[in-house]
Write a structure and sequence with these properties.
Blueprint: H1 2-7, E1 14-19, H2 29-44, H3 49-53, E2 56-62, H4 78-85, E3 92-96, H5 125-135, E4 146-150, H6 159-164, E5 171-175, H7 187-198, E6 204-208, E7 237-241, H8 242-251, H9 260-263, H10 267-278, E8 287-291, H11 303-315, E9 324-327, H12 339-348, E10 351-353, E11 386-388, E12 393-395, H13 412-415
Parallel strand pairs: 1-2, 2-3, 3-4, 4-5, 5-6, 6-7, 7-8, 8-9, 9-10
Antiparallel strand pairs: 11-12
Region (Disordered): 101-127, 402-424
Biased composition (Acidic residues): 107-119
Length: 437
């Protein structure tokens, strides 16, 4: 019935699949049927009205209630993900938890208990053929513009196909999540081909909760000759690790491997270092997010040096569109104040987002955001938290903090009074509207 409702609804724009702890991953029935229907529609080049109109899809969304359960067995099939990418009008896709393989055996996973193994409609030969059709991902087959991958799984096994599939990708967001089997060791490969294939259209490259990612011989990725974001004419915002930025500058310093501390004493070379970093970015850049992911800066870079480089970057005329810099600092007993950077930014019209900036930001910045179950509440009941651009999550705003300084969180019962603790919910929930970018 759910599948019929989805495919026969001609004005369906958004669809959200919320995960809860009562779900059995192998029994997401409408997701399975959706994959088969997509395979059939793709083969016949004839799409039912509901799939023709569908523009926004989210899979694996947190319910934000006691039903949430971050168990490592939350994984959805590759054919489901690749099939959704081929929906004829898809614009935005959020996907949380891709399986490491298409049909893994997961400890504790329920099976199709209503059927014998060879009698299940999902195990038949026609179903296998439709899954295979849904799994195809030819180049430029997708109209998706906003892609948000949460809890990264098996994407690196088809990264070339994934990078070439969108016709014109605008935002690309990666979040490590809490349910992956292993640390991604070649994170830069997840980005390299996307930048290469989508450089003319890409506008945003964001990385959330970067501590679980690891690049090849770098923290996340290296700008310049390896990942050429300076060739992306539409790029407006990007996340870069401070460690990668300054380490790369050190090894590619215009004056060779002369000690950076010594070179820093020369004002001419100091400006040259700042110019070198500035040239790594396109002139269209508006928002620069500099993360630390719990990693301290290299020994050859001091906080004073870091501030001077960023001051010169703000003052440079090479980034005329720059509006904001978000600076993540490691948790230290002594926090460097960045007083000069804050003042220069204020005078130059660039918002500097640090812990100790007294100025109210003048520019409103929108980051790609994961979908929230709060969209089910009436507008007056939705809390208004602040978004953390480093971890990709919502935090209680200063107005919502208790006197003790703890977040003023609502209990699940207060947030969703209609949910009965003794009732299991179905695995699929359609959203009236989903916006996360």
């Amino acid at each position: 019935m759910q599948m019929l409702l989805i495919v026969l609804c001609p004005r369906l724009k958004s669809l959200k699949y919320m995960y809860n702890k009562h779900d059995k991953v192998d029994r997401h029935r409408s997701l399975k049927w959706l994959t088969l229907v997509i395979g059939k529609a793709w083969t016949d080049a004839s799409w039912p009205p509901g799939l023709q109109s569908l523009r926004e899809v989210a899979v694996g969304v947190h319910s934000e209630t006691w039903l949430d359960d971050d168990v490592p067995e939350l994984w959805y099939t590759r054919s489901c993900f690749r099939g959704i990418l081929k929906l004829p009008s898809i614009e935005s896709l959020y996907f949380r938890g891709l399986r490491p393989q298409d049909h893994p055996t997961i400890e504790g996973e329920d099976t199709e208990s209503d059927y014998e193994d060879n009698e299940s409609p999902f195990n038949s030969s026609p179903a296998a053929e439709l899954r295979h059709a849904a799994d195809k991902l030819p180049a430029r087959c997708s109209t998706v513009e906003h892609l948000y991958l949460d809890s990264i799984g098996d994407y690196d096994t088809f990264q070339s196909e994934l990078a070439a599939a969108p016709k014109a990708l605008k935002t690309y967001t990666l979040q490590s999540g809490a349910i992956d089997f292993f640390m991604i060791m070649d994170f830069d490969l997840l980005l390299d081909l996307v930048v290469e294939k989508q450089r003319q259209s890409i506008q945003s490259i964001m990385v959330y909760d970067a501590s679980e990612f690891q690049g090849y011989r770098c923290r996340l990725y290296t700008l310049g000759h390896e990942i050429k974001i300076h060739d992306c004419p539409q790029l407006r915002q990007i996340h870069v690790q401070l460690h990668d930025l300054f380490t790369h500058t050190y090894y590619d310093f215009p004056w060779g491997r002369q000690g950076l501390t010594e070179a820093w004493k020369d004002p001419f070379k100091r400006q040259g270092c700042a110019d070198f970093i500035t040239r790594l970015f396109p002139t269209s850049l508006e928002v620069l997010v500099l993360g630390c992911a719990g990693v301290t800066m290299p020994d050859f870079v001091s906080m004073e040096m870091e501030q001077e480089i960023l001051v010169n970057l703000v003052r440079s005329d090479r980034l005329p569109a720059l509006k904001a810099i978000y600076l993540e600092l490691p948790d230290l007993d002594t926090v460097y104040p960045f007083t000069k950077l804050i003042q220069v930014g204020w005078e130059s019209g660039v918002d500097i987002h640090t812990r100790r900036n007294p100025h109210v930001p003048r520019h409103q910045v929108q980051f790609p955001m994961p979908p929230r179950a709060a969209s089910h509440l009436s507008h007056g009941d939705i809390p208004q938290p602040e978004f953390d651009p480093f971890n990709g999550c919502w935090m209680a705003s200063s107005q919502d903090m208790q006197l003790e300084g703890e977040p003023n969180e609502m209990s699940p019962g207060e947030t969703f009074p209609a949910l009965d603790i003794d009732d299991e919910t179905e695995d699929d929930c359609a959203s009236v509207r989903l916006r996360y970018y």
